[in-house]
């Protein structure tokens, strides 16, 4: 069996993020209807058609305090954790479909940058919901609820998750840097590129009944 899935109204979610209210994201949801929905997972950091919408300016000004942002998406079919990542800032997710997030706490990462997946929790994010995922929250690609897959809008500071310049390693955490503003810890079963830091210990968590 898969993980127990809690609702984002559960008090436990407050350690990882919060629901954002008062935003009209109708235009964003409509534009997302034109985005691909592959059998695996696709992530696109920045989509000009989404960023040109009036809602994008509201998110930039009101949610990010006028910090330059990018708006992209993560779509597809997925039931497994595979890896965790974190940023130096919050991430905004807009659930276009119902989806499940498997999340944990950066504070639980070990001194050697390994992390025990048994510490993670799963939460259902209903379609149309806007959430803030705190910068200290470990997360990765959402999991689908329906066989038709999932669509999720991803808002981050401009440049996040894009290619990095060569970096001189200064400390252990630098080994986790996988892209700009993206620190990643992978699972050995996650099918990640050879340069990914593999440090997830325990089960490659999944939702649903698939193993």
TrEMBL record:
This is DUF4867 family protein. InterPro entries: DUF4867. It holds the Pfam family DUF4867.
């Amino acid at each position: 069996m898969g993980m127990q899935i809690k609702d984002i109204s559960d008090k436990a979610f407050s350690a990882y993020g919060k629901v954002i209210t008062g935003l009209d994201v109708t235009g964003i949801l409509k534009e997302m209807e034109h985005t691909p929905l592959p059998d695996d997972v696709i992530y696109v950091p920045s989509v000009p058609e989404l960023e040109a919408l009036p809602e994008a300016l509201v998110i930039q000004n009101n949610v990010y305090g006028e910090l330059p942002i990018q708006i992209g998406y993560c779509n597809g079919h997925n039931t497994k954790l595979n890896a965790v990542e974190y940023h130096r800032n919050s991430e905004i997710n807009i659930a276009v479909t119902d989806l499940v997030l498997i999340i944990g706490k950066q504070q639980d990462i070990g001194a050697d940058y390994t992390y025990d997946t048994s510490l993670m929790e799963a939460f259902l994010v209903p379609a149309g919901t806007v959430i803030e995922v705190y910068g200290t929250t470990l997360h990765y690609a959402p999991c689908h609820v329906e066989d038709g897959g999932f669509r999720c809008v991803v808002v981050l500071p401009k440049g996040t998750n894009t290619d990095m310049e060569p970096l001189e390693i200064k400390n252990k955490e630098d080994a986790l840097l996988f892209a700009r503003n993206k620190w990643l810890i992978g699972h050995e079963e996650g099918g990640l590129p050879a340069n990914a830091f593999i440090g997830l210990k325990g089960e490659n968590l999944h939702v649903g009944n698939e193993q």
